[in-house]
Amino acid sequence: MLSIRGLNQYYGASHTLRDIQLDIQSGRVFCLMGRNGVGKTTLLNTVLGLLPAQSGDIEFKGAAIDRLATEDRVAQGIGYVPQGRMIFPDLSVMENLRVALAGRRGGDSKIPQQIFDFFPVLAEMADRRGGDLSGGQQQQLAIGRALVLEPSILLLDEPCEGIQPNIVQLIAEVIQRLRSEQGLSVLLVEQKLPFARSVADDFAIMDRGAVVATGAMDELSESLVGEYLTV
Ligand SMILES: Nc1ncnc2c1ncn2[C@@H]1O[C@H](COP(=O)(O)OP(=O)(O)OP(=O)(O)O)[C@@H](O)[C@H]1O
Question: Which of 95, 106, 152, 184 fits 178 for a cystine, CB–CB 3.0-4.6 Å?
Fold first, then answer.
């Protein structure tokens, strides 16, 4: 589904991504873990083309996407829920969702009903300003907005940060349903181990810009947790 080979990225002289190799399989939830500042968000932004790679190959559904503009990568089926949610505070909930429709190439121009089935609060608050929503409601809106384009992979950057437990549980259920009912792949950046363990099939751990361990989530060892994840 998504294959990353030899990816290097720099902020000026700072070597932020070091020879990253990753494979995210179709229909699986892949969790990217690691302490603050190791490069997780930079990796997502480089996959999307929001940041330039210095070298490396990124393939999505078997085709190179390295040279595509971000909007073309999104149109190919890469959905993104950025850290901090980035909803438009002055637009209504419905307008926030409609903004995403503009990225759709041909096809239906309606917001899929399924988004309101996953997140009923978005229908209840359709006319409210995005900025007036709680953090948990904004996160549901950010995920819903990414789903408007019916992506085949969803990149989620710390979706549970600052969110109350019942919404965290709802997000976990939505991730599991998207995978089991639609075969959606998910690349999740997550620092909270219980949440990662509850939703992910596979993991990779990053440290100082490099991937230092990968494997099946149920094989994540306590020694790796202690070495790379515990603060
Ligand atoms: N715009 C930027 N310019 C220069 N350096 C940056 C920039 N953005 C991030 N960095 C640096 O790049 C490194 C990786 O940051 P990144 O945000 O990708 O890490 P992260 O693993 O996602 O951490 P967090 O969990 O805190 O978001 C850090 O050292 C950070 O300070």
Answer: 184
| CA-closest residue to ligand 1 atom 30 | 37
Contacts of 225 (CB under 8 A, 6+ apart): 193
Ligand 1 contact, 39 CB (< 6 A): yes
Beta strand 153-157 with 78-81 is: parallel
Percent of the chain residues past pLDDT 90, beyond the cut: 87
Is the CB of 47 inside a 6 Å radius of any atom of ligand 1?
no
**How many Å lie between the centroid of ligand 1 and the Cα of residue 42?**
6
pLDDT in tens, 25-66: 999 999 999 999 999 999 999 999 999 999 999 999 999 999
The one-character DSSP state at 197 is: H
For residue range 195-228, what is the model confidence (pLDDT) as tens digits?
999 999 999 999 999 999 999 999 999 999 999 9
Residue 145 CA, ligand 1 centroid: distance in Å: 25
Q: What is the CATH number of the domain that holds 204?
A: 3.40.50.300
* Alpha helix segments (H runs only) across the chain: 40-48, 70-75, 93-101, 114-118, 120-124, 135-147, 165-182, 193-199, 222-224
Query: Residue 112 C-alpha to ligand 1 middle, in angstroms?
Result: 34
* Ligand 1 pocket, residue 11 CB under 6 Å: yes
* Residue 42 near ligand 1, beta carbon < 6 Å: yes
Give this prediction's pTM: 0.93
Q: Which residue segment(s) compose the domain that 223 sits in?
A: 2-229
pLDDT (0 to 100) of residue 108: 64
Number of compact structural domains in the chain? 1
